[in-house]
Structures are given as C-alpha cells and as structure tokens.
Specification:
Elements lengths: L12 H24 L6 H23 L9 H15 L3 E3 L3 E3 L1 H18 L3 H23 L7 E7 L3 H12 L2 E12 L4 E11 L5 H9 L4 E6 L1
Antiparallel strand pairs: 1-2, 3-5, 3-6, 4-5
Helix pairs in contact: 1-2, 1-4, 1-5, 2-3, 2-4, 3-4, 4-5
C-alpha cells in the first residue's frame, strides 16, 4: 500500500524487532481498554496474544523465504487463529444461569491475534487500521450499544390446580407479544386436590410491567399463584 514501508517488509533483525515492538504497543493499547473495564483478559494477555501471533507469522515466513523449507507460509498463522478460540473461550462466563459475559473480550482477543499476524507479515497498514477500529468498537460502540433498548428474559413460577390453566397462561403471554423459551413442569398430589407447578422462561418483545403481568395471570381460572424466580 505505502511504498515507503516496502523496505520494512523483508525479514531482517531490524524488521523483526520493529514488528515485535509494534505488536507489543498495539496489543497494549487494546488491552488497556479491557483492563480499565475490569475484564478477564486485560493488558498483559492482549500483549502476549499479539506478540505470539506476530512471531508465529514471522516464523512461517522465515522458514519459507530464508530457510527455503517446503512449507506453507500461512500455516502457522492459521493455527494461531484456531488456537485463539480456546483462549477466548476462557473469558466467557454465564451469570445468573442466563446472562453471558465476556463475548466482547473474547472477540477482542481474537482480533488482537489477527492484528499480530498482520504485523508479523509486514502488513503494517492493516494492523494499525484494525487496532483503531477495535478500539472504536470497544469504546464508542460500547456506549452506543448500551443505548439500544432490549428486554431481558425472566422466569415465572406458576402454581395451578387445573391443567387447562397452563395453556391459558401461555396463550395470554403470547397475546402479550412474549415468547416462551423454556418450560419445566412438576406435579404434586395430596388427599384433596392435585396441584401443579411450572417454571416458564419468558422473553418480552416490548417493555413490560411485571407486577401488572403477574396480577393479570393470577386472575386466570385455575391459577393459585405466580411469582418471579
């Protein structure tokens, strides 16, 4: 792209040193933002990923160009891309049984590794531009993403004595533009009557007053009680 950088694209001691230093800087820049937000993978992790990917890419180039070995230049870089999935998976956690955290950090680590490969291959322009875009995605787009309205799913514990009551409740929820993603049913019988319970995982498509919703469900025939769990 920029001809002025062409002398820096060969594998020499100076270019290797330059690329590794640049990988440290770019990895650190992305990692600082993650550390500032107290994410699982922060400053040092991003540096190590970027440097490791960079040296892996340079090793593949060196083996082919300098040692004249019959190898695929891109093979080591491709293995780095696959291996980053294991590191990224370690940053993803599930809270409260339903909420997933760490996806952005995992994606950032993956992108950081690709940036390291770009720098290791001498594609300085791509690595620098990608770093800027990753930072924009993790900062500016994070703010914009928080402004997008979304309705989290919740669970309802329904207790009822008549089996048709469950179908009536599910029909009522669907009429309220709510989807039911999971349903667990248990039964209980005593000397006088049968009593059933069900846990419904509900995702509303619009803003919902949960207290009002519970009140409406309690009015359905056969429903003994309902509450959030």
């Amino acid at each position: 792209m920029f001809k002025i950088l062409d002398p820096l694209r060969d594998i020499t001691f100076f270019t290797v040193l330059l690329r590794l230093i640049l990988a440290v800087i770019l990895g650190a820049v992305i990692g600082i933002e993650r550390s500032y937000k107290n994410r699982p993978a922060g400053f040092r992790t991003h540096i190590l990923v970027c440097v490791g990917a960079s040296i892996a890419c340079m090793t593949g180039i060196y083996m082919y160009v300098n040692l004249h070995l019959p190898t695929d230049i891109s093979r080591l870089g491709a293995q780095v891309v696959s291996g980053l999935g294991f590191i990224g998976g370690g940053t993803i956690i599930i809270t409260n049984g339903t909420k997933i955290k760490g996806l952005t950090t995992a994606a950032g680590l993956w992108a950081c590794g690709i940036i390291g490969i770009a720098i290791g291959a001498g594609f300085y322009e791509g690595g620098l531009i990608a770093t800027v875009l990753v930072l924009v995605s993790e900062t500016l787009f994070s703010y914009l993403g928080s402004k997008i309205p979304h309705n989290e799913k919740f669970k309802l514990l329904l207790i009822y004595t008549e089996k048709p009551a469950l179908n009536d409740v599910m029909r009522f929820l669907k009429n309220k533009r709510m989807s039911i993603s999971n349903l667990e049913i248990t039964g209980k019988r005593d000397s006088t009557q049968s009593q059933y319970s069900a846990i419904l995982t509900v995702r509303p498509r619009q803003k919902t007053d949960r207290d009002s919703l519970i009140g409406n469900i309690n009015e359905i025939k056969g429903v003994v009680g309902v509450k959030l769990v």
